[in-house]
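Sample A.
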Amino acid sequence: MNFLGRKCVLNLDDFSRGYHGDGYPFDGRGQILAHAFFPGRDRGGDAHFDEEEIWLLDNDSNEEGTSLFAVAAHEFGHSLGLAHSSVRGALMYPWYQGISGNYELPEDDRNGIQQMYGAPEDKLWANLPDARRPTRPTTTTTSTTTPRTRSPTRRPWKTRPTRPNTYPDDPSRDRTNHYPYKPNWRTERPDYYPQRPEYPDRPRKPHRHHTTTTTTVTPHRPRHRWTPPPRNDIPDKCHTSYDAISIIRREVFIFKGRYLWRIGDHGLYEGYPAEITRLFNLPEDIDHVDAVYERQDKKIVFFIGKNYYVFNANKLEPGYPRPLRTLGLPDELEKIDGAMVWGHNSRTYFFSGTMYWRYDDSANFIELDYPRDMNMFAGVPYNIDAVFQWKNGKTYFFKGKGYWEFDDMRMRVAHERPRPSAPFWMGCPPEMETNDIDYPSHRAKVIQSSSSASTIALSIIISSLFVLAIRIT
């Protein structure tokens, strides 16, 4: 393709492995296949490919490997300025799909490139876009794209990692430099909470139930209003697991079934648990929430099944609920197990099953290097019930009736076995420790083997010092 009006050198055939000078290392075979930079200065327009992948030159080959044509075409789309598309089958769809013979560029991609460079019948030549990020076109196929700058292509989310994940970004790393040449495309900041939330200090107690044999009532104001009988599904705070936990306005909210508890600086509030719908305008028929977290703009996000809700204080924002896929999560995902803003690096994380995702709040989309296996959080079990970071800066994972404190600096649990949740979080008597805390044996083996290795290494060191001492004497 030729461009008129600007001289430009594009490095479109760089095959590298591991660290290769751009700050975005490859991870070996599998997962990240390639990445590209949008048009701009220096590395703008460059596309890099992981040399350790098995690249196939024949699109119709039955051999195991990755189509070089499919990946290169996708990355060159980024080099030309195209962002990702949410339209399945589109060349710019963020997940690797492969390409068959006699490939024809899908309509969504044609619309996008013609919006920037012009259609063939209207314009034969176009200027190379400058460093400013081009705006994604609006198409008749209802495609939506999310502004991105670094755009690695990876395999579908179900692919399990074949090697340990890399360590998270250094917390001291400048947030604005996470993506190269990322423009300030967000022109408006989200709304903030009022200083005082609209939550009541305690839930209102229900009216007493009245029985009457009166058969006539005034048409506009009944003498006695019927109230439903007390529910029998209220959880026992000392004998229950938790569905979700979050810090909201510097108070701990613990959710179970249709109910929630609030814990302030002086402990558990009186009058709880209360029904969730008394504090938040969620559907009356919900019987649980899967995960809750407070965003950095102070809005509250609820995950229920395949949908999520966003609240400003206790008022549902217009346009919600929305499906999880609008966040960039896979269609196959049934629910979120836990969500938190991790103080270690101020990033948002979602957990489900054996995997976790990192969410880009500025782009409102999942980052493209994800999901990853939860073995990054050493000692934490799969299929967690809840996760949150307390006001003391410590992270806690919950499963069953137990919890783990996580050491953010060592990237492993602070204690191998779970501790009972009820005494610590609900103020239940210490003797209320339960015997049914779920402890994941497969993760225990990993921890035990690591401990055994440390013990052996320590023994070798002590033996060496002993021999050395004998020789000296």
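Sample B, a different protein:
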Amino acid sequence: MQIEINDVQGKALSYLIAKAIWPEKEFPAWWFIDRPDGCYLPSLDEDTGNPVDGFYPQSDWGLSGPFLSKHDIFPFKCSGNDYGAHLPEYVEHAGKRVRFETFGPSPLVAAWRCFVASRLGQYSGCCIMVDVPDEFSEES
């Protein structure tokens, strides 16, 4: 099913983060659904290759901060309790020059949504849509 990127959360977001980081790998949805603390995946730190048990990067600055910084994704504070994140420059995406900007309830959620959008998103009018397996329909 297609969901607007700013509506993706929880385990569905963890799944999409993994797909965006490692597009060549297959990840069954049940890995993310059946493990309340996340799943066992390779590290985001390509230098060490240490595995991550409990892959839930949208709540872990130690895991996410260096990775997002390396990819130039910057979170920012919006009004109220909302946060946004963007890539600093316009990029070529599906034949258009676009600037990915997403929002969320925390800086990490907003930043990871931006990363996922830049790798897996499709523009549909003014929204960025992503494909999420039907198994996540109750969560997203």
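Observation for Sample B: Residues 107-120 form the longest helix (14 residues).
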